[in-house]
Protein 1
Amino acid sequence: MTSRRISDENVVMRVSKILQAFIVHKSKLTLTQLSEQTGLNPSTVSRIANSLVTTGFLGRDEATKSFYLGINLIQLGEYAKENYSLNRISEPHVKRLANLWKERVVVDFFDDNLCLLTVQYSNAINSGYGLASSQMQVLPHATATGKVLLAFMDKKKLDHYLNTSLYPDEKKIGGTDKTITSVAVLLNELERIRKDGYAFSAGELHDDCHTVGAPIRNMFGEVIAAISISLPIIRNYSEILPLIIDSVKITADDISHDICGIHKEPEAGN
C-alpha cells in the first residue's frame, strides 16, 4: 500500500512538472525541451505527455512535433477561476445574510454531472464561516438552490435530469413524502421560480427544515449559482417569510452585481 501511494505521488509530481513547464517557459514545447525543463527522462515525458493528449489536457502539433496546453486544461482553469471568484465575492454577502436571520446560508452550483457543490457557506448559529467544496450528494430538486439551478438550466440538460434523477435513491441524501416526483409538477414549479425569482423547498429534503433560494448571475445574465437560507420549522418563520424571501433575493442580486463589477472592462480614459 505504501509503495503504491509513493508511486502515485511520483506520477502526480511528474505531471505537475510537465504542465508547469508550459506556464514558466513557452506555449509550445517539444519532448526534448520538456525533458530539459523538467529534468525527467525523455521516455517518461513521452509517456505522460501522450496520455495527457489522450485526455485533452495537452494538445500536439504534428507538424512541429511539439505539445501545448489542451482545451480541457484551459476550461478547467476558467472553471476554477470563476468559482474562486464566486467564493471570494459572495463571502461577505453570505455572512451578512446569515447574521441577519441567525441561520445557515449557502451558495451552490452544479458540476458537470448535475451534482450540487457548495462554494460558500456561513452558519451563524455556530459562528463558523468557510468554504465547503465537497459534493453534496442530495436530491437537487428537493433543495431551494437545486430548484433555482434547474429552473434556469439549458433545456437539453433539464430533460436529461428529468429522465434520470427525479426519484430518490440510496446514493442521495434526503427526500421526504413532500419531495416532488412528478415531471409535470416540477416543471410548473420551475416556471413559477422563473417568474417570481426565488425557490422554496417546504420540507422536501428534510422534514424539519424549509429553504429559500434565489439565482446568482454573471455579467451575461446567465445563472451560474444560487444562494439559499435554511429555516428550521421549529422556529416558525411563517409570519416574516416574505421579508426573508426579499432578503435572499436582494443578497443574490448584490452578489450578481459584484460579479459583474469584477469582470467589467475599465472605461476608456480611466
Protein 2
Amino acid sequence: MIAEWISGAAARQGGAPYLEDAAGTGTLTYAGLRSSTRAWADRLDRAGIPPGARVAVRLPDPLSYATALVSILGAGRVVIPLDPGPPAAELSRVLAAARPQAAVGESDDGLPPGLAVLRPPDRSSGPNGPGSSPAAERAIIPAGASRTGGIFLCTSGTTGAPSVLSRFEEATGLPVIETYGMTEAASMITANPLDGPRKAGSAGRPVGTQVRVARLAAGRYVPCPARTVGRVQIRGRGVISEYAENGPAGAVDPEGWLDTGDLGHLDQDGYLFLAGRSDDVINRGGEKIYPREIEDVLLAQPGVRSAAVVAAYDEVLGERPVAYVVPTEPWPRELEDALRAACAAALPRPKRPSAFCLVRDLPLGPTGKVARRRLRELAAGRHSRTSLRWGRAKRC
C-alpha cells in the first residue's frame, strides 16, 4: 500500500520536494523517493533480506535517515528506527527486543557480530547510490519471518512527570498546548485545540484516534460515565495491532481496543484528564491513590523543583504514599513543614504522604523520565518499619 502511495504521488508531482534538509544541504523529490524505494527493494532482495524482515536504521544525517526509513518501509520491510547516538545499554536493549535481520548505518559500532549492515548511498550519488558491507550479501534469514511491512517501535513504558505549564506561561508569556501520545499510537492521541478552549490539566480531545475510558465488568471492559476514572483505551488506524515478542498479552482486545496502561477520565466535552499509570496506583487499605494528584500539590509549592510520589510498604494498610522532593536550594529550612501543611490543606488524610524524602535529583531512565521503579525500590529499603522516622524529612 505504501509503495502504491509513493508511486501515485510521484506520478502526480514527481518534481516537487518530498523532503528538504532544514540546513539546505539536500532535497528529495517524490520521483526521487520512488526511485529510492525501488533501489532499496532491489538491494534488500540481492542481500537476501526478504519482505517482512526487520531492518534497523541508524544514520546521523536527518535527510538520509528519513529517506532510508520511508524507502525501506515502501519496499515492504519492517523498519526499526534507532537513535543515532544512544547509550550502549539502550542500544543493546532495543536490539535485543527488536532482533533485526539487517541494519542500515555508517558503521558496525555497537551492532551484534554478523548482522548484515547496508551502507547508505552517498549523497553525491543520489538516492540510488551503491554500497553495502560484505556481511550483507551473506545474510541468513530465520525461517518463519513475517511477510508484512511496518515500523517496529520500542517504547520506554513510563510516564513523564506532570506538565510545568503555569510556571512556563507566566515566565515567558507563551501558551502551552498540552497533548498526550504514546509510541503504540504513532505518538499523537489527544491534544488541546490551538484556537479553541484549552482546559488546564487536560490532555485535550482525540486527534485521529478513538479514545474511551473503561472499567472491567463481568469479564469485559465497558465505557465509564463522564468524570469516572478508568483505564484509557485507544483504537484507530494509527494504533498498533499487536506487540512483538515478550509484549503484554491481550493488550489489544478482539474489537481492536488497546489498553494503554494509563488511568484517567473524560469530561462531558470529551476532554481527557490523566490520573497516572495503572501500575503506579497506591492501594492504602483499599483506598486507591493516584500519585499525580499529590505531585501536583507538591509541585505548586515554592522551593520545589521536582517531585515524585511512590508506594512504600505498610504492615497494616498494605501501602502508603512517600514523597521524594528535589528542592530548588540545598536543604531549605522548614520546607517539610510547608509541604506537609500544603498537603493537609489540599488532600484528604489517606492521600497525604507519610514521609518526605529530600533528594538532590530524581533517578531517571534512558529517555529522561522519572524511574519510578527505582524510587519504589528506594522506598522499600529506606522506609521500612525499622528505618522510617515518622514526621521527619529524610535527606537521602
